[in-house]
Amino acid sequence: MTQPNLNPDLRVVVLGAGMSGILSGIKLLEAGYRNVTIYEKASRVGGTWRENTYPGLTCDVPSHAYTYSFEPNAEWSRQLPPGAEVQGYFEQTTRKYKIDELIRFNQEAKRCEFVGGRWHLETASGVRDEADVVIAATGVLHHPRTPNLPGLKDFRGDLLHSARWDHTVPLDGKRIGIIGNGSTGVQLVSALASRAGKLKHFQRTAQWVMPVENPFFTEEQKQAFRDDPALLKRMQNDETYLANVERFTTAVADASSPEIAMIEAIVLDNLERSVQDPVLREKLRPNYRAACKRLIFSPDYYQAIQHPNAELVVDDIETLTERGVRTRDGVEHELDVLVLATGFHADRFMRPMQITGRDGRRLDDVWAKRPHAYLAISIPEFPNFFMLNGPTSPVGNFSLIDVAEKQWDYIAQLLNLLRSGACTEIAATQQALDAYEAARLAAAKNTIFASGCNSWYLDGEGVPASWPWNYARFRDVMATPDLSAFEQTVSRAVQGVAG
Ligand code: NAP
């Protein structure tokens, strides 16, 4: 509902209709905004859950935690839901809150320029628009990374990136190769080991694997969730999960903490207990600390890689050939299908969109060294431009929905300053950003992410690009904006009118 004295006509454009864009739409309508458009590059909502449809795709965060706080879901089928079910949840929520009516599909924003106190946008198909506020809900992992492997063009079989799955490619009984053992590659191996005629998993760097259970919810449990909203709420706010998030974020923030030692003990025990063959066990044993890369949460990877059809290949890939992959030991691994589970360009964020702030400042120049923003939300001299899950946001093995909701609550308080007329432009000050970045970079050195491994968490200079403190601190900081960190201005045009 619109609060008195809050202008409902402030024009807000949201970029992206994934998890955080849908969230923005819902929250804006709920707060009484009636001049909102969401631009979405694809023809459907869902973001990463729309893009990724590979076999075995699973959300490795518990389903009831990977749920909007205001939209509990009694129907989750199991503890770790399949990707298609998560996608269905976002589509259903979009319809329920009538967010589809705000979305312009197949419109990729190409240009976004702050001129004369407003944002001017243009999409790839030439649609132009203007807005007082832009919310960038463009996601992080959406530019698939194709490795620069020799011979990539020579392979005659089916070559797929995990985020661009072709469901017409036959898999059953085939010779399948999977390059990469991040969260994606591991899920693919679990799904395909028993279906393939032969599956070869090409591992460049071993991964620590956290054991998890993935039980189905029974019909009785689901009925109980439907009948008892309080019970469903308790599932969402499950104390064990919340305690795990606190423990996990405390662990990653301090590489010498007892919490990280606990995680290390669990994953080591998992490796020792789960892998029978000592040779395979050594191949699977990482030479860096647990949680340095994003931890793999898997109920069945070790089982899958020990399946008679599966083979772990640890020799470096020399080249792709017409028939498969040749490793440095000279072996040619013949394949029908080769999957690149090789991740994403995680530093692209809104780009390649051209974003220009005050006085022609180009975001590409501002971010030349590394993408950065005050509290991951606001960029100096880019007024009324806010990001969800932006650079230096918390990342890890927990719900990014919760992260986006907390960021939204923070942004909503800034938007109220615009709606109330307290100011017409608001952006973090350079001083606030510099202080935040200095503290963040210092803290980042103590995180487990910086303890000596390579991962997409690291920026171009090898510094962890994420929130380096624990979750409690994130929650506290997001609760109320420190307005001394923001420059609020009343644009000349408005001053003129007022005067
Ligand atoms: P990723 O974690 O970046 O892993 C990429 C993999 O490809 C790594 O194993 C990497 O090896 C390997 N690789 C890259 N280039 C290579 C090359 N030239 N030769 C050999 N191997 C190469 O990507 P991802 O697995 O797609 O996961 C990305 C993120 O997506 C995850 O961390 C997670 O945040 C998200 N995700 C989440 C879920 C979920 O359930 N919530 C599921 C899937 C993905 P190195 O380790 O040696 O670099």
From TrEMBL:
InterPro entries: FAD-bind_Monooxygenase_sf (IPR051209), FAD/NAD-bd_sf (IPR036188), Flavin_mOase-like (IPR020946)
Keyword Oxidoreductase: yes
UniProtKB keywords: FAD, Flavoprotein, Oxidoreductase
Domain of life of the organism encoding this protein: Bacteria
Pfam families the record matches: FMO-like
Name the UniProt record assigns to this protein: NAD(P)/FAD-dependent oxidoreductase
Species assigned in the record: Ralstonia soli
